Amino acid sequence: MPMTFAEKVLARKTGKASVRAGEIVTCKPDRLLMHDNAAAITDKVAKDLVEYGVADAEQPVIVLDHVIPASDEKTAANHKKIREFVRKYGIKHFYDVGTGVCHQVMVEKGLVLPGMLAVGSDSHTCSYGAVNAFATGIDRTEAAALLLTGETWFKVPETIRITLKGRLTDLVTAKDLILTIIGQVGADGADYCSVEFSGDIANLTLDDRFVIANMGVEMGAKNAVFPVDEVTKGYLRSIGVNRTAWNAEWADAGATCRRALDYDLAKVIPAVALPHKVDNYRPARELAGTDVQQCLIGTCTNGRASDFAVAARILQGKKVHPRTRLLILPASRAELERALDSGDIQTLVAAGAVLLPPGCGPCLGAHQGCLAPAERCISTANRNFKGRMGCRDAEIYLASPATVAASAITGTITDPRDAT
């Protein structure tokens, strides 16, 4: 019987010839991601860790990224506890403050590769589908158990197949595409499904695919994944990954899927998600004139050098509107260095942008960009839930780096095609 991508990965990981959607399987993930929440996770099993230790010191990856640098004594103490845990149990993959957002670090360090099974104590672990991994978020209790046993269980998901056709037009980005898809599918339209993207994907960069996979969970997906092609192979070569290190998987022709959708990329236009739901889709032009007090370009969704390049193109020679502020937040130190080498960071700073350290910062309202009551922020992040950026009486609009950059110039939501 033909199998989907998810069925193939989970069958291989369980040592079975085949599995089917709805089946419960137990297997060992290749990677377990944790971030600042590793302190709380290890606390859950502290006594058991002393007695039994960590099942596999190669499996966990810990990246300090959520509140960095530490904003208060409690956060600093948590970071210290994590560093001590890493040393005591010989955790092989640890990245301290300033390396970047965990999801970006996982991919750019080659810690998650095609055909792998990765889990993480963060819902946007699904990002790694950009490089053909089955990747999904788990809760803290499950992560704690994994540290001790190395294994966990999965319900094999059903599959939604999305075929992309054509090419995006100028100043229309992968962020506009995924906001459009989520707006049509709905925030729960892909609940516990593996979403397979295929078609004219050669027209999407690895960065584009990361954006799309990252936001798969915003339509409820368990996993959002792309096949390996020359774009993927080129990226893996660029970060020094040997071809013998990975084994890609993809769906068989005729594999059963719950739903199949087609999208013409040429018809996608700049999109915005209105408060307080990611599926609250509107075309950017319909919101023209809506005042914004803060603009954010960055996070694990859109904090790469290619995103800053788009923004710099729009802001070159211009200034941020005096009644708004523009924050730029690199996804990693490596992406920051690339954007510095290109001169794009300098262009954005000259326009009035404020550069923040590589990490999560304002995305989750922890620090560095919290909103005040009645303020609006237009952001390239992945969520606009009430209170997400530190204030329940503020509003968050989600958009592409191009739309955010155009809006920073005018101080109002602006379609980037109208700003050049």
Can you identify the CATH superfamily of the largest domain?
Aconitase, domain 3
Main structural class: alpha/beta
Biggest β-sheet strands, sense, barrel: 5 strands, parallel
Rounded radius of gyration (Å) = 21 Å
The overall pLDDT average reads 96
What is the CATH architecture descriptor of the largest domain?
2-Layer Sandwich
Total DSSP helices = 14
C-alpha geometry = globular
**How many β-strand runs?**
18
The name of the CATH topology of the largest domain is: Aconitase, domain 3
Strand content: 15-25%
CATH class of the largest domain: Alpha Beta
Could you list the spans in which at least 5 consecutive residues all have pLDDT below 50?
Answer: none
Q: Give the helix level as a range of percent.
A: 25-40%
**Reading side by side through the largest sheet, how are the strands ordered?**
4-3-2-5-6
Number of domains: 2
Distance between the termini: 53 Å
Compact summary:
This protein is of the alpha/beta class. The protein has helices spanning 5-14, 38-44, 46-52, 73-89, 102-108, 140-149, 174-185, 206-214, 230-238, 299-302, 305-315, 333-342, 344-350, 401-410; strands spanning 24-27, 31-34, 60-63, 93-95, 117-120, 134-137, 152-155, 158-165, 193-199, 223-225, 259-264, 271-273, 281-283, 294-298, 325-329, 354-355, 376-379, 395-398.
